[in-house]
Amino acid sequence: MPVTVFVGVSVDGFLARHDGTFDFLNVADGIPHGFEEFMKTVDAIVMGRNTYGVVQPITPWPYLRRTRVVVLSSRPDEIAAGDVTPF
């Protein structure tokens, strides 16, 4: 089973700011980043609880409805049911 990693990082190599946000990945500027193409090639997304906390309020939901989203967390009761599978 192949595993692919799609990660956005800042120029200094960090995945997020100190407060956990990744607003430096401004998708509203219209520049393609390959995310849509990537999503068409995967069956599932695995992310940590902190990343889920950042992307959960985004509307529309950034992941295709056919894509299973698994959130790794020691607090699965804090994860919204329906769109994701807590693990």
Features:
single chain, 87 residues, alpha/beta, three-stranded parallel beta sheet, 2 helices, 3 strands, 14% helix, 15% strand
The mean pLDDT is: 75
Overall form: globular
Approximately how much beta-strand content do the residues carry? 5-15%
Helix fraction by DSSP (H/I, runs of at least 4): 10-25%
Task: Classify the secondary structure makeup into a structural class.
Answer: alpha/beta
- Give the radius of gyration: 13 Å
H and E string: HEHEE
**Spatial arrangement of strands, main beta sheet:** 1-2-3
Measure the end-to-end span. 20 Å
Number of helices: 2
What does this structure look like?
The chain has helices at residues 35-39, 49-55; strands at residues 44-48, 68-72, 84-86. Helix 2 (49-55) links the parallel strand 1 and strand 2. A three-stranded parallel β-sheet has the order 1-2-3. It has a domain at 44-86. The model has no long low-confidence stretch (mean pLDDT 75). With 87 residues, it is of the alpha/beta class. It has two helices and three strands; from the N terminus they run H-E-H-E-E.
Mind sketching the topology for me?
Layout: H1 35-39, E1 44-48, H2 49-55, E2 68-72, E3 84-86
Parallel strand pairs: 1-2, 2-3
Q: TL;DR?
A:
With 87 residues, this protein is an alpha/beta fold. Helix content is 14%, strand content 15%.
